[in-house]
Structure formats: structure tokens, C-alpha cells
Write a structure and sequence with these properties.
There is one protein chain. The chain is mainly α and about 130 residues long. It is built from four helices and no strands.
Length: about 130
């Protein structure tokens, strides 16, 4: 059974995204001066806590798992998922050993780079499927 990508839905989603961007830009420009004045307070609050960092890591992992497994059904490749798992594993190790600053620094670089390559690889596989006359 071959999976076919509907270019009409992709085009509609792209158009919707293009309509939302100026709105988000306006909110960003209005809110930025207020947020900059609050940064010293935010740096010492919930956003700098270990719980918040683990929640962000878990949220990113769940989002990536959903997106990459959804796209895997189309292109049938596991390598983006493996790279993403590697990235989240390295980021988790960095959070576990956060007392050692250089380990955390290296793990952030390696983990984020692995996630970036996972998404680029996934995007390339999807792009190849769109160009394929299967």
C-alpha cells in the first residue's frame, strides 16, 4: 500500500502558517519591551528551575516522537527517529550531570545538533517522497 502526499493540504497549511506569522510578529513586537524588563525576575524564578528544564525536555521529546513517527509512516525510514532518540538521550545526560558545567555544555551542543540532523534527514526523506512517482 503506497502512501500519497496530498499537495493541496500542504499548500493550505502553508498558507495558514503564512497568515499566522504576521500576527505572531505583532504580538512579539508589542510584548518584547515588557518581557525584557522582566528578564532578571524570570531568570530567578520557575524558568530557571530543574523541573522546568525537565518539562521542556519531555515536551520536546513527545512532540518529536509524534512528528517523526507520523512522517516515518510515509517515508519508512527509522534513522530520523534514532538520531532524535540519541539527541534526547545526550540532552538528558547533560541535565543529570548539570553540576559539571563542561558536560552540560557539550551535551547541549551534541544533543541539539543530533536533533537538528534528525529533522533535516526527515525533511529530506519527505521531500524525496513528494518528488517520487511511486
Amino acid at each position: 500500500m503506497k502512501t500519497q502526499i496530498n499537495s493541496t493540504n500542504t499548500s493550505e497549511n502553508t498558507n495558514k502558517f503564512g497568515l499566522v506569522l504576521p500576527f505572531l510578529c505583532a504580538i512579539h513586537c508589542i510584548a518584547l519591551p515588557f518581557l525584557v524588563s522582566l528578564l532578571p525576575f524570570l531568570g530567578q524564578s520557575f524558568f530557571s528551575s530543574e523541573i522546568f528544564e525537565w518539562l521542556m525536555l519531555l515536551t520536546g521529546a513527545c512532540t518529536s516522537a509524534y512528528l517523526l513517527t507520523r512522517d516515518r509512516r510515509i517515508h519508512k525510514q527509522f534513522s530520523p527517529i534514532i538520531l532524535a532518540l540519541l539527541g534526547f538521550g545526550v540532552l538528558s545526560l547533560g541535565h543529570i550531570f548539570h553540576e559539571i558545567s563542561y558536560i552540560e555544555f557539550i551535551s547541549i551542543g551534541v544533543g541539539c545538533t543530533s536533533l537538528l540532523f534528525a529533522y533535516i534527514l526527515n525533511w529530506n526523506f519527505i521531500k524525496k517522497m513528494k518528488n517520487c512517482v511511486c
